[in-house]
Amino acid sequence: MERINVFLAKHLWAQIALSVLTASVLITLLYPGRSFPSVVARTAVISLGGITVALVARRREKRAAGGTTEGLVSLDRKLRTGEVPSDPQERAAMRDLVGQRLHRSRHRVAALVFLAALFSAITVLTALTAGPRQTIGMAVLTVVFIGWMVYNSNLQTRRLRTMRAALQTEPSGGTTGEESEARRPPRPAESGS
């Protein structure tokens, strides 16, 4: 599983291709009749906005991780496993990456509520305008997708907050007494006797 995660993290095009293919398969199952290549083409065109957002986010994350895909993949793996970097440059890059992701997900609860309402409305409209096959398919998709989104969102947020807290403490053996003394704020002047 780790090899798959690393491959997908290195190759954003593979994530996009899998997403488009999965969506195309679901659409074909729910609404048979169109040729699969035409469904794939339509899905890819409709997904262009999401693909653009993913590419922009990826570029920002790469910049925060030092500008390389390898650096981003390494930090992402450490974030998933909870391994706190000890190298000062890597800690700074992880701090930037965690800060970016937490900032980007600050409205996650509102977004999840909006998605749940949207998918529920689509399921109701499907029930009113289509057959039982499409209604059941949309209902299952809604429950599975929203459930997965809530679970994954909570998991990622917990990982990010845990890493942010771990990065706020000094690494063990990472600084000398003089360095940590230099980082302390100055003490207030003592009053004279």
TrEMBL record:
Keywords: Membrane, Transmembrane, Transmembrane helix
Record field: transmembrane: 12-33, 39-57, 109-130, 136-154
Record flagged with keyword Transmembrane: yes
Superkingdom in the source lineage: Bacteria
Name this polypeptide is given: Integral membrane protein
Native source species: Streptomyces albidocamelliae
Region of interest: Disordered: 168-193
